[in-house]
Design a protein that fits this description.
One of its GO terms (cellular component) is cytosolic small ribosomal subunit. This protein has 77 residues and is mainly beta. Helix content is 0%, strand content 51%. The protein has a 5-stranded mixed beta barrel. The chain is globular and about 45 Å long.
C-alpha cells in the first residue's frame, strides 16, 4: 500500500527535529453543495531542523516516532 503524501505550511518549528504542518483540504458539502475548507495540524519529523515557519512542505506517512509524530517531512526537491 503506498504511503500518503500531503502538502501544507509549517506553522511551528519551536520543537527540536519536529515541525507542525497545517494541511488544508477542500470538499463539497453534501447538502449545501458549497466548497468547504477544513484544516488539520500534523506533527512531522524534520531531522536536520531545515524548515522554518511559513515554508511549504510535503509530508509522508511513516512509522510512529513519538506520541504525536507519524509523519516525515520530505526533503526539498
Amino acid at each position: 500500500m503506498p504511503k500518503r503524501v500531503l502538502e501544507g505550511i509549517v506553522v511551528s518549528d519551536k520543537q527540536d527535529k519536529t515541525v507542525v504542518v497545517k494541511v488544508e483540504r477542500r470538499f463539497t458539502h453534501p447538502l449545501l453543495k458549497k466548497t468547504v475548507r477544513r484544516t488539520k495540524n500534523y506533527h512531522a519529523h524534520d531531522e536536520g531542523n531545515a524548515f522554518k515557519t511559513g515554508d511549504v512542505v510535503s509530508i509522508e506517512e511513516g512509522k510512529p516516532l513519538s506520541k504525536l509524530k507519524r509523519w516525515v517531512v520530505l526533503p526539498k526537491a
